[in-house]
Amino acid sequence: MAVVEINFDGLIGPSHNYAGLSLGNLASAKNAGGTSQPRSAALQGIAKMRANIALGLTQGVFLPQSRPDRAWLASLGCAPETAPVELLANALSASSMWAANAATVSPAADTEDGTCHLTVANLVTMPHRSHEWQGTLAQLRLAFANPAFTVHGPIPAPFGDEGAANHMRLSAMHDAPGVEIFVYGVTGGPFPARQHIEASRSVARLHGVSRALFVQQSEEAIAAGAFHNDVVAVANERVLFAHELAFADKDSFYRDLRALLPQVEIVEVPTAAVSLSDAIQSYLFNAQLVTLPNGGMALVLPTEAQDNSRVWRWLSEMVAGDGPIRQLIPVDVRQSMANGGGPACLRLRVVCDPETVDPRFLVDDATLDRIEDIVATHWPETIEPGRLADPELWHQIGQARASLLMALDLGELA
Hints:
With about 425 residues, this protein is an alpha/beta fold. Helices cover about 35% and strands about 20% of the residues. It has helices spanning about 25-30, 40-55, 70-75, 85-90, 125-130, 135-145, 195-205, 220-225, 250-260, 275-280, 305, 310-320, 335, 365-380, 390-405; strands at about 5-10, 60, 105, 115-120, 150, 165-170, 180-185, 210-215, 235, 240-245, 265-270, 290, 295-300, 325-330, 345-350. It is globular and about 55 Å long.
């Protein structure tokens, strides 16, 4: 079997709006009440997927969920027409586009039973995300129905689990046995620590992971706006790329990691060169660190990192050196960034044989052409805050999603 890493990107949905629902997410709070551009947002995401394909990477997609979420509102005794505005905003959120929060993934090489395990994230910390898991689980069970996979339901509340955004994997190569890093929070100053250690330990047990480390995210990072670990660290194969202040006890973490994976290369960005504030504003670490077909590594990062002179200076000096990361690839995902999610937020990494995945969830340029046509035709061009209660908008959002499901022959998700 040809085992590769597949990046499954969440297609940005037609209800993409700036309601500012994510406490601790500085970009989300800053842009609350602004006018969003769902069509432009989705086209930017599609362009990122095309760029990955052009690099020679295997690309997948997850689809927007039904919005407004009428079932969730009904469980609260409401219909969209009668829901308080704050509940309606939560029911309309397009946040499932950030597929890094879809699930935690342990490749077959790491698990006791030799299957690739996925546990859907419960996302219980934030109301607008807490009702995503049912729709996400439905897609995971379709995409990964092959016996090569084991798909788990969510960890029960109150143990908050935010998926792959707080999980890293390091290995000599993608298909080699790895060390899985579960990053959890304890405190975060004025903001909640979203990943609970009890959830992380439960996922590791369910997956049968033999080599796991449980690492505390620093309170300083969370308080600065690093609501997920992937805002201050990212890993790929043998390389860990992290901010100096990402972890509560980095010395112990690095020592334990080197004991389990002696060939690990740690690329640490010092605070003296790039502050936490600059790292979080630019989403320097919320990048896709990928292995290219020629064997080198590239960092696919938001154009905001290029716009920040201090960040870009440090990155340019890094790639000019003799380190493992050899290429910088800026991508424009400004609409997602304005709501608090960069390139890494938009994707879930799954190491597997592509032949075992439902082909309807894998994309090439031709498939993306079809998706792009539907987005250009059906996605709202803008959504102003005052339109969230507009039934005509709800109808347009529903029709847009229905057209997409029909085009991709995924009517089971309707």
